[in-house]
UniProtKB/TrEMBL annotation:
Species of the source: Pseudohaliea rubra DSM 19751
GO cellular component terms, semicolon-separated: cytosol; protein-DNA complex
InterPro entries referenced in this protein's UniProt entry, alphabetically: CheY-like_superfamily, OmpR/PhoB-type_DNA-bd, Sig_transdc_resp-reg_C-effctor, Sig_transdc_resp-reg_receiver, WalR-like, WH-like_DNA-bd_sf
DNA-binding region range list: 141-239
Molecular-function GO term, any one: transcription cis-regulatory region binding
Domain OmpR/PhoB-type: 141-239
Chain ranges of the Response regulatory domain: 19-130
Record key words, sorted: DNA-binding, Phosphoprotein, Transcription, Transcription regulation, Two-component regulatory system
Record PTM 4-aspartylphosphate, positions in chain: 68
Residues that span the membrane, as ranges: none
GO biological process, one term: regulation of DNA-templated transcription
Listed name of the protein: Two-component system response regulator
Length: 243
């Protein structure tokens, strides 16, 4: 185990006081992550397996846990229940399949980074993870999960399993939220009432849906989400990618 003493408060770089635990058995990758994060001002501790990680997680508090999945003594996913609600888990793995990403996010991770990655991406994702809304701390009114995607109405953001983010207007957020919650055909009248109730948008439902479609198609990670118009009924959201 290598450590910058997670009990002490850091004052270097742009991330003072932010502690990171790296759980990674590949020496080269662990060393690279340690160096990059230390240079960015984080205080870093690293371990190589689930057993060491569980031991140190019970003793110390970390802001972010950078977690590999394929560890010598188990699946890193089993460490997620060990984390406190104040700790953000960022999964780091070569397993980039959508099913794996969705599984990790459903289990409580706040983000997912696939190896190999660019150094700047690692730093950016760790910085974002420490302020990301933790799904374990949010009630059902605060976020909506759908096929690994997460809509955060309070922040007006729609997050993809791979880390992409679409920023929405108030009206777009309300429309998308209704479609995701129902996961079936939602009547146009229901959507119109939702938009006109408290969101102050004069836009018609069709205009808001058109804007949502453009954002989904133009943003990496969201291309396989479609909002279908059902003649005489309303709208339905569906996934068109592989299952």
């Amino acid at each position: 185990m290598t450590s910058d003493s997670p009990l002490k408060t850091g004052t270097i770089g742009g991330n003072p006081g932010t502690t990171v635990l790296i759980v990674e058995d590949d020496f080269a990758n662990k060393y690279l992550c340690e160096a990059l994060l230390r240079d960015a001002g984080f205080r870093v501790t690293s371990v190589s397996n689930c057993t060491e990680a569980k031991r140190i997680l019970r003793r110390f508090r970390f802001s972010v846990v950078l977690l590999d999945l394929g560890l010598p003594d188990g699946d890193g996913m089993e460490l997620l229940p060990e984390l406190r609600p104040s700790q953000a888990a960022l999964i780091m793995t070569v397993r980039g399949e959508p099913e794996q990403r969705a599984r990790g996010l459903r289990s409580g991770a706040v983000d997912y980074i696939v190896k190999p990655f660019h150094p700047d991406e690692l730093i950016w994702r760790v910085e974002r993870a420490r302020v990301y809304p933790d799904p374990r701390r949010l009630g059902t009114a605060d976020h909506i999960l759908w096929r690994g995607f997460a809509l955060h109405p309070e922040h007006r953001e729609f997050h993809a399993p791979g880390g992409g983010v679409i920023r929405l207007t108030a009206g777009e957020t309300e429309i998308l939220g209704r479609l995701l919650r129902r996961n079936t055909v939602v009547a146009r009248e229901v959507l119109a009432d939702a938009v006109s109730s408290g969101y102050g948008s004069g836009r018609s439902v069709s205009v808001l849906v058109s804007r949502l479609r453009r954002k989904l198609r133009a943003t990496t990670g969201f291309e396989h989400i479609e909002i279908l118009a059902i003649q005489g009924s309303g709208y339905h959201i569906q996934w068109t990618g592989s299952q």
